[in-house]
From TrEMBL:
PROSITE patterns for the chain: ABC_TRANSPORTER_2
Positions in coiled-coil regions: none
Gene Ontology molecular function terms on file: ATP binding; ATP hydrolysis activity
Protein name as catalogued: ABC transporter ATP-binding protein
Entry keyword set: ATP-binding, Nucleotide-binding, Transport
InterPro entries the UniProt entry points to: AAA+_ATPase, ABC_AA/LPS_Transport, ABC_transporter-like_ATP-bd, BCA_ABC_TP_C, P-loop_NTPase
Length: 248
């Protein structure tokens, strides 16, 4: 099966520092794939290479078998790679319903149409409301985003990315800063996304990773160090040693 997302011998250097070292990662369609590794392992750099925020020093990136290494970040979004939005000032002033309607409208190409049929607006608002319901945000969808609890703001970021109907969703610590009791819920909602959405997750909390992922890749010092199922990775003494070394 053609991987949804693949890197081949991907390299990133910052001056003399090799931060991504010949990483060949394969994410199968529909995967709930987690990327773990100690601080400074190169996880965020890899996500930035995948989105096009950074240009690789070597190697290739393939989306559904097509080489996207030289494409712009915008082109990658158009082709189906999304990462979570950071809530900015604009979204803080809007309600979740307004924000998601903008994202859905953007996807449908309504963005620059001044006059549009009422029925089209209704379809957009219905889709936005259904999406917010799925993300358990229905009760707050008409409040200003700035008044939402932090955990709900993180869910809104993911809902905004999903409104674009991505093929591949990249999540960089989506539960960071979310209260302990809500963290599992955030990941459970992501896990329950439609099977045709491929998810690559960076997460530090091993409890969350083990309950979320069906495949885990371990990065250490820029290299892909191990890959396997939850059982394989959680029982791997070398992976444990890396984390214990990190904690030490
Ligand atoms: N723009 C840059 N210039 C120089 N070095 C950088 C740059 N960006 C990242 N690095 C270095 O690359 C290494 C990997 O950083 P990265 O943020 O990708 O790791 P990470 O695995 O996401 O870490 P964390 O879990 O702490 O977020 C670090 O040593 C970092 O200092």
């Amino acid at each position: 099966m053609t991987p949804a997302l693949e890197t081949q011998m991907l390299v990133k250097r910052f001056g003399g520092l090799i931060v991504t070292n010949e990483v060949s990662l394969s994410v199968r369609p529909g995967a709930r794939h987690a990327l773990i590794g100690p601080n400074g392992a190169g996880k965020t750099t890899l996500i930035n290479l995948l989105t096009g925020a950074l240009t690789p020093s070597g190697g290739r990136i393939l989306l559904s078998g097509e080489d996207i290494t030289a494409t712009t970040p915008f082109e990658r979004v158009r082709r189906g790679i999304a990462r979570t939005f950071q809530i900015n000032q604009l979204f803080n002033d809007l309600t979740p319903l307004e924000s998601v309607m903008l994202a859905v409208g953007e996807r449908l190409g309504h963005g620059n149409r001044l006059f549009r049929p009422l029925a089209a607006d209704r379809a957009v608002s219905e889709e936005a409301a259904a999406l917010l319901e799925r993300f358990r945000l229905a009760d707050v969808m008409c409040l200003p985003t700035r008044d939402l609890p932090y955990g709900k703001q993180r869910l809104l970021e993911i809902a905004l990315a999903i409104a674009l109907e991505p093929k591949v969703l990249l999540l960089d610590e989506p539960a960071a800063g979310v209260p302990e009791e809500d963290r599992h819920e955030v990941l459970a909602i992501v896990r329950a996304l439609p099977a045709d959405v491929t998810v690559l997750l960076i997460e530090h909390d091993m409890d969350l990773v083990f309950s979320f992922a069906d495949r885990i890749s371990v990065l250490a010092a820029g290299r892909l160090f191990a890959e396997g199922t939850v059982e394989e990775i959680s029982g791997d003494p070398e992976v444990k040693a890396i984390y214990l070394g990190d904690a030490a």
